[in-house]
Amino acid sequence: MEPLFLTACRGLATPRPPIWLMRQAGRYLPEYRELRRQVTFLELCKTPALACTATLQPIRRFGLDAAIVFSDLLVPLEAMGLRVEFTEQGPALPEPIRSAADLARLHVFDPLQATPFVGETIKRARDQLDATPVIGFAGAPFTVATYAVEGKTGKSFLETKKLFYREPETAHRLLDLIATATRAYLLAQIAAGAQAIQLFDSWLGVLGPEEWDEFVCAPTRDLVAAIKSAGVPVIYFPNGATTILDRIARIEADVYSIDWRIPLGQARARLRAGGAGTFALQGNLDPALLLAPPLRLRAQIGKILEEGAGTGHIFNLGHGIYPETPVENVELLLRTVRG
Ligand code: CP3
After folding, report:
1. Atom of ligand 1 nearest to the CA of 22
2. In terms of residue numbers, what domain contains 193?
3. Catalytic residue check, 16
């Protein structure tokens, strides 16, 4: 029988929504913190035996309906030629791309040569799982570009916007280059066994509709099309950008991952208004609700289950789980979704 997650990805209703959680392998899990004590974060990403252990930890503990390969959004940027560090304050790229001259330092890469550990982790995870599907992922071109240009997680994203407004040609070339590299990177994940791909556009919400149309839509749509033609469903996460879901529909993803700022019913209507055909929705519990009392948490889960009915629905959070989340609340979430 096809796993619930893959059925839902095709836009079909399932007896109950499959559930997985963005950033499900991470610091809220005691077993992850234990693993992390032994190695740096990048060593963990680059050692397939350890990355596979991290990938499987939330599956072994909770029996979630999909695993996501343990890696990071910045792994391909390092392979493209940028120095990437992880500090207490988050990621740091000390030599960011701010001009056409800087762009010459970035190049496409062969995933089998530069990032073989990602495919190796996927293979190991597939070998050790029975039916649970494995999701591969990458950042979407815009979100990866913000890291290349800002050199860290942005706040105002002013460096990125300055590049867009003052050097639009350079911005287009940067996004195209990232999209080209990401395409090979994701096709290698699919060749290694990834059964679905999620594209994280975590910071898309800082753009207006004109910037989406002018810079972001085309490279993102082409990347989605390339992955779909490899035969696996694509989940697109346009975080914070629900106001432009009608325009986002043009990328023709199989699944749209929705944040908590809009009810799923309204998200579905906006996507349909934009001409979306068959699609599924993923989401959309505010991860902060996993820090709320059970009554409030259960009430919101109930609303999401009602809103989700009507298309394929994959239950998920509206963004990544917080490190301070109590494991008991994740268990409560799973019990409630599974009825
Ligand atoms: O979902 C999973 O469990 C798979 C693993 C995964 C990680 N990062 C591991 C990680 C995934 C899918 C990501 C994606 C990622 N990385 C995104 C997109 C998702 C999102 O949250 O919007 C982004 C923006 C990044 C970049 C990144 N990596 C940041 C901003 C940080 C620091 C903030 C933080 O959460 O610590 C990281 C580090 C990171 N990536 C950790 C993990 C488990 C924590 C590092 C540690 O163990 O010390």
Report:
1. 1
2. 4-338
3. no
- For residue 238, give Cα distances in angstroms to 3, 45, 78, 235, 248: 25, 25, 23, 10, 8
Atom of ligand 1 nearest to the CA of 32: 47
Residue 311: pLDDT band with limits 50, 70, 90: confident
pLDDT at 44: 98
Sign of CA dihedral 20, 316, 186, 2: positive
In ligand 1, the atom with minimum distance to the C-alpha of 44 is: 47
The answer to whether residue 173 is catalytic is no
Helix (H) or strand (E) holding 281: strand 280-285
Spatial neighbors of 117 by CB under 8 A, at least 6 apart, are 45, 46, 47, 48, 51
| CATH number of the domain enclosing 167 | 3.20.20.210
Residues lining ligand 1, CB < 6 A? Answer: 22-27, 36, 41, 68, 70, 72-74, 86, 90-91, 137, 153, 200, 202, 320
**Per-residue pLDDT reduced to its tens digit, 64-115:** 999 999 999 999 999 999 999 999 999 999 999 999 999 999 999 999 999 9
Ligand 1, atom 10, lies closest to the CA of: 72
In angstroms, the CA 107 to CA 318 distance is 33
Question: Residues 224-235: what's their mean pLDDT?
Answer: 98
Provide the pLDDT for residue 7: 98
Asked if 178 and 148 touch (Cβ cutoff 8 Å), the reply is yes
CB atoms inside a 10 Å sphere around CB 165: 10
Domain count, the chain: 1
Cα(35)–Cα(204) distance, integer angstroms: 32
pLDDT score of 144: 98
Q: pTM for the complete prediction?
A: 0.98
Residue 69 is encoded by which pair of tokens?
């390969």
Active-site choice (10, 27, 221, 247): 27
